[in-house]
Write a structure and sequence with these properties.
Blueprint lengths: L7 E4 L6 E3 L6 E2 L10 E7 L3 E6 L2 E6 L3 E3 L2
Antiparallel strand pairs: 1-4, 1-7, 2-3, 2-6, 4-5, 5-6
Length: 70
């Protein structure tokens, strides 16, 4: 599935951790993003990773863990 900047997305399944999209990425606990929270794609990193801005931060997430809001 292809995503583009500005797409509204949510997590399909809980993640074991979240990786920040900072210049020096850090691992953060998964409870910063609730399963029903909607985020916005703000950047594309490689073929299968996107930057998603949620209420509590911007994280790098694999596209196979995301679904587009309909």
């Amino acid at each position: 599935m292809d995503f583009s900047i500005g797409d509204q997305v949510f997590l399909q399944m809980p993640l074991p951790y979240l990786k920040t999209a900072d210049p020096m990425p850090m691992l953060r606990p998964p409870d910063l993003v609730s399963p029903e929270e909607i985020g916005e794609v703000v950047g594309l990193r490689g073929v299968d990773v996107v930057e998603v801005r949620f209420r509590r931060g911007t994280f790098l997430i694999s596209i196979d863990r995301l679904a587009r809001k309909t």
